[in-house]
Amino acid sequence: MAFGIKRQELAAWKERVARSEIAYLTHFWIDSRFPGITSVTKVGCADLHRLEQWCREHGLDPRYIHRRQPFPHFDLMGSRQKDILIQEGLDDHVSRFHL
Predict the structure, then answer these.
(1) From what superkingdom does this record's organism come (predicted)?
(2) What is the pLDDT, as a whole number, of residue 4?
(3) Using CB atoms within 10 A of its CB, is residue 32 exposed (0-12), middle (13-18) or buried (19+)?
(4) Residues 5-62 pLDDT 10s
(5) What is the pLDDT of residue 3?
(6) Which DSSP state fits 42?
(7) Total domain count for the chain?
(8) Does the bond joining 70 to the residue before it have cis omega, within 30 degrees of 0?
(9) Which of 56, 55, 72, 99 is nearest to 13 (CA)?
């Protein structure tokens, strides 16, 4: 279950993904399959080649990309989520979602 974001934030993320930009959307998230995980960052890009390259640059396996059209994305969770958000200068995501 996702919560903690506004419709406007989701709409802006979708627009950036559709323009083939690398777009980040962090939200609170609870799923019993992932105990202790309270948030996820969806890194999206309509250009799958670009998203695959982004994964490789961050040491992530592109096989885990959710290839759902029109909004393909990679789910970042746990310590890698925080590290990558900091690398990308998204400190506001880190503080807002208590990472």
Answers:
(1) Bacteria
(2) 84
(3) exposed
(4) 999 999 999 999 999 999 999 999 888 999 999 999 999 999 999 999 999 999 999 9
(5) 77
(6) E
(7) 1
(8) yes
(9) 72
Distances (CA, A) of 98 to 28, 51, 56, 60, 82: 10, 26, 26, 23, 10
What is the radius of gyration, based on Cα positions, of the chain?
A: 13
Q: Looking at residues 83-87, what average pLDDT do you find? A: 97
The answer to whether 52 and 67 are in contact (CB under 8 A) is no
Assign 3-state DSSP to the chain and report helix, strand, coil percentages, each to 5. Answer: 40, 20, 40
Contact (Cβ atoms closer than 8 angstroms) between residue 46 and residue 71: yes
Contact 29, 38 (CB under 8 A): yes
**Could you give the dihedral angle defined by the CA atoms of residues 35, 40, 43 and 49, in that order, rounded to the nearest 10 degrees?**
10
Rounded Cα gap, residues 93 and 33, in angstroms? 23
What's the pTM? 0.93
Q: In which domain, by residue range, is 52 found?
A: 2-96
